[in-house]
Design goal:
mainly beta, OB fold (Dihydrolipoamide Acetyltransferase, E2P), 1 helix, 3 domains, 2% helix, SH3 type barrels, 5-stranded antiparallel beta sheet
């Protein structure tokens, strides 16, 4: 399906220059002379790189059929990461490169949003914060309270994060899934 470039919106997936990507930002530019331009910032699904593409205001842009599904993480094994659709009970297996940085935050039973393009899964989105249990924690040093001290703890998924000294083994913590930072206790 093709639409006029002026109808492009953030979040839409398009085909451009032999590649496919998601529109991250749109800017309508009107130079002093000539026709208006649409500058679209697009992230490629193949390379992951961001690029700004310019379209003439009347130019046609191919929209790619997409579908977002909420799936539940089941388990991982050498063949990949397995997610289940809770409505149809179908299992979708995603490869390591699609899950990428999200694997440190995946926990059994966790809901994630998977983006499918033309029937193929291309990316996953985690909730903003995830709750993970502390499995290994060293003791804080008594009297060390200057300058907001922290210590490293290991969480149930294997990731190590910096937390305040009062956190101990067995605590369940809220962790920011975008940067891996400590948010608070759950």
């Amino acid at each position: 399906m093709a639409i006029v470039a002026t109808k492009l919106n953030r979040g839409q997936c398009i085909r451009y220059e032999g590649d496919m990507g998601v529109v991250l930002n749109i800017e309508h530019r009107t130079p002093g002379k000539g026709n208006a331009l649409i500058a679209a910032t697009i992230r490629s699904f193949n390379s992951g790189k961001t690029k700004t593409i310019r379209f003439a205001s009347g130019e046609k842009v191919d929209i790619v059929e997409t579908d977002r599904k909420s799936l539940e993480f089941s388990y991982s094994d050498p063949s990949g990461y397995h997610f289940m659709d809770l409505e149809t009970y179908e299992t979708t297996t995603l490869e390591d490169d699609i899950v990428a940085g999200s694997k440190d935050f995946l926990k059994e039973g966790m809901p994630v949003e998977v983006l499918f393009i033309e029937g193929t899964a291309v990316s996953i989105s985690l909730p903003g914060t995830v709750e993970l249990e502390v499995t290994e924690s060293s003791e804080g040093i008594k009297g060390d309270t200057a300058n907001n001290p922290t210590k490293a703890v290991k969480l149930e998924t294997g990731i190590t994060v910096q937390v305040p000294l009062f956190v101990k083994q067995g605590d369940v913590l809220k962790i920011n899934s975008s940067d891996g930072s400590y948010v608070g206790r759950a």
